């Protein structure tokens, strides 16, 4: 029989939050800015399109600012940061015995449907994060800690959006 | 003093590795919190498991409190810390869309990366979706560029600015609110939990942590935040050293080339008396008496613009440069030699030099037959008719202006 490792419990949420807060604080002290995730993903998008259709990148302002001409879209702290995020997540997962190929989903949904919903949700999150000029990391966490009005408004809107749609899509998770 | 400029201290590779390290700890903390699992994240919206709110709010409070305490003891200059500029309505609409995507897809960008890193397939599909969404946005943003760039665009606006309250009051208020929210959230969780199995009691460490946060809030209340005068006084030696190095004094020739460069957003600030300004000033230079330089005026300065301050000579412009730089305005330069040297080089016959004996520091050394304003050729000399100058360019362009398409869009 295959030996399935039992995953360890997660860290206490307040402790994990304090750790995250320390990392955020260190980022502000050492670099002058907070954390970021969607900005790095945007650079990957620009880089991939630049491989396939460099002239199209040059003609599309939102991509050209990252990969236009001979600019290297990956030459940015955000790209380093998301590499770090994945590495850190992987190591933490290894320590907690949580690295395994699986699909996390509610009990009453098929794997295919979960994948489709993850993809659709991802599209919305990608659009929302670009429209808001940041995601939960770069806007809500980082801007929240330095008391940016726009970041707090954004954060409330994220929770509002989630709660508004939670009942209609409850079959996905419950 | 913090914040550091990592590229200047560590070089490009070192700065990259620093970001990698910070990202590593960020990802580690997210995974430890359980954010690699979409079910745990989604549970936030069914009130069973409010880990998302607890972790986020704790992180914000801890970072905010530490920044305030450090700023109170002059260990970090908050004016130099990046504050996300407020674009209110795109931010709110984007937040709503992101919230919809969050509950449908189960992640946000940062958490989906952690999920992918621990080999969750739903995380993989989510990341692919996010990349697709970013592409869709980039392809279509031109159709609503006005909404995206101008709707509720307030620039760098903080909650204390908005409410007109002392930052220390806002910070301590948020700490107290957070603690109350945590108490409430714990109760709600108990009500909605499916299996009412109580976790091992951990009330004591929680109370201790709450006390630490409260102590931090009290410390912030007592230490306060440095006033502008205090800050100027403590930054003065550093700023004087930078002024003496003359790395922010730009040659008239460089300014002339900037005036003819339409890919640069250039802001010219003339800080002389109104009389001098009316006599002669550069084309598009704004008259900014030093009294006008309050917080609201500074907030409306476009951060990416190249800003050049000028007086008759240099001393007044130097004072304004120090003030703006101390307040964290990026990209401020001084016109070398001021308007006097400008007129010596580019002046037309209309500008007549005054006799030597009336020369005083920072006084206009030219007289004009009538009030010229910016109507004279010397207000924006032609490049080809002007004497060529040999200079080392010093201006670092923070962000070039994107090329705009034609048409009436």
Topology:
The complex is a heterodimer of chains A (174) and B (409).
Chain A: H1 13-31, H2 38-52, H3 54-59, H4 61-67, H5 77-95, H6 111-131, H7 136-145, H8 149-166
Helix pairs in contact in A: 2-4, 2-5, 7-8
Chain B: H1 6-33, H2 38-43, H3 51-72, E1 86-87, H4 88-105, H5 109-117, H6 121-140, H7 145-150, E2 153-155, H8 159-163, H9 167-192, H10 203-223, H11 228-245, E3 249-250, H12 252-259, E4 266-270, H13 274-279, E5 285-287, H14 295-299, E6 306-310, H15 315-326, E7 332-335, H16 338-346, E8 352-353, E9 366-367
Parallel strand pairs in B: 3-7, 4-5, 4-6, 6-7
Antiparallel strand pairs in B: 1-2, 8-9
Helix pairs in contact in B: 1-5, 3-9, 3-10, 5-6, 9-10, 11-15
Give an account of the 3D structure:
The complex is a heterodimer of chains A (174) and B (409). Chain A is mostly helical and 174 residues long. Chain A folds into two domains: 1-100, no CATH class; 105-174, no CATH class. Helices cover 66% and strands 0% of the residues of chain A. Chain A is built from eight helices and no strands. The longest helix of chain A has 21 residues, at 111-131. Chain A is globular. The two termini of chain A are 30 Å apart. The model of chain A has no long low-confidence stretch (mean pLDDT 93). Chain B is α/β, with parallel strands linked by helices and 409 residues long. Chain B has two domains: 6-226, no CATH class; 229-379, 3-Layer(aba) Sandwich (Oxidized Rhodanese, domain 1), CATH 3.40.250.10. In chain B, 54% of the residues lie in helices and 7% in strands. Chain B is built from 16 helices and nine strands. Chain B has helices spanning 6-33, 38-43, 51-72, 88-105, 109-117, 121-140, 145-150, 159-163, 167-192, 203-223, 228-245, 252-259, 274-279, 295-299, 315-326, 338-346, and strands at 86-87, 153-155, 249-250, 266-270, 285-287, 306-310, 332-335, 352-353, 366-367. In chain B, the strands form three sheets. Chain B has a five-stranded parallel β-sheet with strand order 3-7-6-4-5. In chain B, strands 1-2 form a two-stranded antiparallel sheet. The radius of gyration of chain B is 27 Å and the shape is elongated. Chain B starts with 5 loop residues before the first helix and ends in a 42-residue tail after the last strand. Chains A and B meet through helix 1, helix 2, helix 4, helix 5 and helix 6 of A and helix 1, helix 2, helix 3, strand 1 and helix 4 of B.
């Amino acid at each position: 029989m295959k030996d399935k490792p039992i995953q360890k419990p997660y860290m206490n949420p307040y402790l994990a939050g304090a750790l995250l807060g320390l990392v955020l604080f260190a980022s502000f002290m050492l670099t002058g800015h907070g954390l970021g995730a969607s900005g790095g993903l945007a650079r990957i998008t620009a880089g991939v399109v630049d491989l396939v259709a460099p002239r199209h990148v040059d003609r599309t302002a939102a991509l050209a600012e990252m990969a236009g001409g001979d600019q290297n879209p990956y030459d940015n702290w955000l790209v380093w940061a998301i590499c770090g995020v994945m590495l850190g997540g992987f190591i933490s997962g290894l320590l907690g015995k949580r690295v395994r190929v699986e699909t996390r989903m509610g009990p009453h949904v098929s794997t295919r449907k979960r994948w489709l919903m993850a993809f659709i949700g991802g599209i919305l999150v990608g659009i929302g994060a670009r429209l808001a000029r940041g995601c939960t990391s770069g806007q809500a966490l980082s801007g929240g800690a330095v008391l940016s009005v726009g970041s707090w408004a954004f954060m409330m809107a994220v929770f509002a959006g989630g709660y508004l749609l939670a009942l209609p899509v409850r079959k996905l998770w419950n | 003093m913090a914040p550091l400029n990592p590229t200047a201290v560590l070089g490009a590779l070192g700065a990259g590795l620093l970001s990698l390290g910070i990202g590593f700890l960020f990802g580690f903390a997210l995974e430890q919190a359980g954010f690699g699992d979409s079910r745990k994240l989604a549970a936030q919206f069914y009130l069973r498991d409010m880990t998302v709110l607890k972790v986020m709010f704790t992180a914000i409070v801890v970072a905010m409190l530490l920044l305030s305490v450090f700023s109170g003891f002059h260990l970090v200059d908050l004016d130099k810390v990046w504050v996300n500029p407020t674009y209110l309505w795109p931010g709110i609409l984007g937040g709503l869309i992101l919230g919809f995507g969050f509950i449908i897809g189960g992640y946000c960008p940062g958490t989906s990366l952690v999920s992918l890193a621990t080999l969750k397939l739903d995380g993989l599909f989510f990341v692919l979706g996010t990349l697709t969404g970013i592409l869709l946005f980039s392809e279509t943003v031109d159709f609503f560029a006005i909404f995206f760039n101008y709707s509720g665009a307030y620039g760098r606006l903080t909650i204390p600015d908005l409410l007109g309250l002392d930052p220390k009051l806002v910070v301590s208020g948020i700490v107290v609110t957070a603690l109350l929210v945590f108490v409430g959230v714990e109760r709600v969780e108990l009500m909605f939990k499916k299996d009412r199995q109580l976790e091992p009691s951990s009330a004591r460490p929680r109370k201790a942590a709450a006390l630490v946060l409260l102590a931090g809030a009290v410390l912030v209340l007592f230490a306060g935040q440095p006033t502008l005068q205090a800050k100027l006084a403590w930054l003065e030696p550093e700023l004087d050293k930078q002024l003496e190095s003359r790395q922010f004094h730009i040659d008239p020739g460089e300014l002339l080339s900037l005036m003819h460069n339409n890919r640069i957003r250039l802001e010219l600030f003339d800080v002389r008396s109104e009389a001098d300004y009316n006599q002669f000033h550069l084309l598009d230079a704004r008259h900014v008496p030093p009294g006008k330089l309050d917080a609201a005026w500074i907030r409306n300065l476009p951060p990416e613009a190249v800003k050049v301050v000028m007086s008759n000579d240099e001393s007044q412009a130097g004072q304004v440069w120090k003030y703006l730089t101390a307040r964290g305005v990026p990209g401020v330069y001084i016109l070398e030699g001021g308007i006097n040297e400008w007129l010596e080089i580019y002046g037309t016959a209309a500008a007549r030099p005054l006799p030597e004996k009336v020369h005083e520091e920072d006084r206009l050394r030219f007289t004009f037959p009538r009030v010229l304003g910016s109507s004279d050729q010397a207000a924006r000399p032609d490049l080809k008719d002007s004497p060529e100058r040999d200079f080392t360019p010093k201006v670092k362009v923070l962000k070039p202006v994107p090329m705009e398409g034609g048409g009436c869009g």
